[in-house]
Amino acid sequence: MNEIMHVGLTLFVASALALWNGWGLARLLLPATLQPWRPLLAPLLGYTLTILAGYWVVRLVGGLRPALGLLLPLGGLLNGLAWRRTGPPNLAAALRMHWPALLAALVGVAIGVAPLVNYGYAAPIGGGWDVENYWPTARYLTHGPVSAIATAPANPLRDINADPPRIGLTLGFSVWQGCVDLLSGGEPLLSFAPLLAWLRALGVIGIYVLLQALFELRRGPAAFGALLAALNGLLLWTSFFNFGMQLAAWPLIPLALTLGLAVVQPASGQQFHTLIAAAIGLAAIPVAYYPALGPIGLMAAGSGIVTLWQTPLRWPLIRRALILVLMTLVLAAPTIPDYFAGFKFRYSLPLTTLGLFRFVPLSDIVGLTLFRLREAPEPLSLFTWLAAITLAGFAGYGLLAGPQRGRWFGLLAGAGGFLLYLRFGAEYHYGYLKAAAYVGWLAGALAASGLQATLERLPTRPQWLRRLVAGGTTVIIGGAVAFTGGRVVADHWSQPGLFANELPALGELRRLVPAGSTVWLTSDPRVQGVTSGLAAYLLDHAVVWGDVRTGYASSSAGEPDAVADYALLQRDEDPTLWGYADPPIWSGGSYRLYQRPEGLLSHVRLVQMVDGGQSVTISLSANRLSLATPFSNQEQATRWIQLQTVTLTPAELFIDGQRYAVPAGLGAITIGPLTTPHTLAIQAGATPIQLRAVSLLAIPPASAGEITHSVALSAASVADGLRVATTITMLNPDSGPLVVALELWDRRQGTLFGRYGLRFGPAVTTQPATVAIDLATGASAAYSAAGEPLPLGVQQGAVLPGSYTARLWVGTDQRALLTPVDLFAFTIDRVGGITLDWVAQYPLMAARIDRPLQPLAAQFGEDILLRGYDLLAERVTAGDTVAITLWWQALRSNLDERSMMLQLRNDRDERIADADGPPAAGGRPTSLWQAGEVIIDDRRLAMPANLPPGRYWLVVGSYRWPSLELVTLRDASEPVWRIPVEVIVPDDA
Question: Can you tell me the distance from the alpha carbon of 856 to that of 858, in angstroms, rounded to the nearest whole number?
Fold first, then answer.
């Protein structure tokens, strides 16, 4: 099913489940004072019952399947009983009476899922990492109870969601999501964003009921207050930022206030069973989100005190309130030990900040201005000032002359007291943000009350005056709030805040990797973090090995010599380092998936230096390798060993007393056949060698010796005060030119200090070069071993406070083909002072170079092969520059002079733009090519700004210079290679 179609299915199933489980409850348990709103309270009660009962089941009994097996028949039983006692539902009457509330909820849902429609696939809309908790937990709960999570197959996300949760996850949202997924046939990745929108809309319905039932607003003003809540920009931002627990408790705020205040009233005919509905609603709050108890409790207390003051029958009210509290404690009993076992751990850690070090202004809270996490508050415009004055005026008048003024004072006192505590007591910016999103709707609701009071005091004639006041207020306040909500949507419109480069491609892992398989997940720093978390989530049906760090967790699983059935590696990693081989069986996003090679039994990534007579001992059994003690397994078998080596000059190893020549660069040595069990003694000669990896094979390896089209290098940083000199020694005999750069980033804040790059062409001997950077002044220079200056490309960034790391980049303009390493780090404090933290040295490293993302074998003429290309974006914007890397190979030496063609053409084959020229910008002309050499040709093609959107072609070819004679593509229907691209309209067009 199309993922966007699944959005609609998720919303339908969530609504149907809530109505099924809540219709009978609403008919049977609501007090008489709330009977007119039974159709609207039914889904709220159904949602509440589902998460509460589901929590009890997964906490004590089993998974969500038995929970639904209990809930669905129970809902049917209650519905049948209610039908018999009160008659069938009257859908037409409910729609006629409550259509404004449904319209407000529909608006809330529409803006909540709007970005997904633009993406065209399911994704988390904002950048919050909490999906690492919600998605796996919902999946685990569909299979078993909370206590069984710890026994699930190894996965980095398993342990942070086990029993008890290390970061204090409450289960309400995951219970609801798991139930909806089981009924819809979906999964958390598909249902997550739609359910957040649905919960926000459900809270809007609850606010409508609250305003009518307890604050005596008529339908129009109540709908206006509810609509302002649906459009509130701060609440919408929290929904987009993936705050699942907070959104799970959002509908419970108006429900708890409405039911709690309604059922404790000692009204005539108020029976005991009405307390059950309120107790269910209150008990669900800690199941959804413990911190929600703060604002809900204080608002309820404020309103309750006022109600107690106003009623003459105080003791009956107090008695019913105490009974309600006791019933709530019974229904919520397991959440009390769960808090101390799990969620309390969260409060023992340093407070979460999200990088927010300011308090959200009141204009953001009420929805008049736009909240952005990394930006300062925006000033109020003239129109926003007008809206703020209008909002404040009507809200103030609502307190003075609106209905139920006492309850409003109590409600505002509770909400205001909680915000004041977070602002001046705890001084907790992040907590203040979340609490503000919970209570921001109060301003609009109170303004709606003031509007109603104003209209009641205006003369009935002429009607145009009343319409002018009502319409003008709606346009001024509603327009400002709607504009801010629209800007929040616009901020998230173009692409998801997470996984924009990974989805929907990575979803294929569920299909490609069989359940129960073992998968080695990369530890490459380019994907460590929340991207690794997504990969781990999509592999939760398999056993995940490796040293993995996600956004919130780290794990280590699998034996050091284990070879998994599959390996999911970063796109640019060398698979041979992990025992796998090109080509991958799948490629998507930042990853490539490899299958275990035939005959590979065991593999150890050594990355160990030996020199000057040092030795290494490797023990092997019939199917295992070890650097420690020999194995007890005495099974005899014929095996082979392949040893990967790295050295900058030819060297030698002595293995079991036999001399083996080690080629310069990246190489492979075959040892065997050997009979297991066996212990290899490996001794180095005088030249330093890196033992990169060792493999145990059941069959002889296909090749050995020098691994062509690879690079070996060393890198060492040395500091003199704040001047850091990094010396790079490169052996690059048959590939290039290569980009070697130092990138100085504060990766936590995304701040670039500077990028300093060199290009190394092919050479049969080592090429040393030094890059010196003065951190205090920003001055930089590059020079050779002889002290001669070298051209250094510099991209200067900003000198801002932060923690910076210098990472080595070796590859093309677009891709780092060497797994990045960090060479030094420094800190800039808030007054500009710089402290060098550490420097590092890497004696030997290696990478295979001939690895285009799109492999080809397109031959031009008799002597040039197009091995492939890298085009990271197949959708480009008019006016942008397209970056492409072409990988050429010389089939013979002594070529004549050629120019390489890169042209943009339309469907009529008309040339629009071109970037023709010699290979590698003239750095490696064809006359210098040697047979077998791979040439990396980075090119950039500027797209015309007025280019109409549509399909175009990047045309790649070659022609002789200066005759311009085309060198045609062999065995093809046309003389050039075409790469399709799609041109889109700029966002600001």
Answer: 6
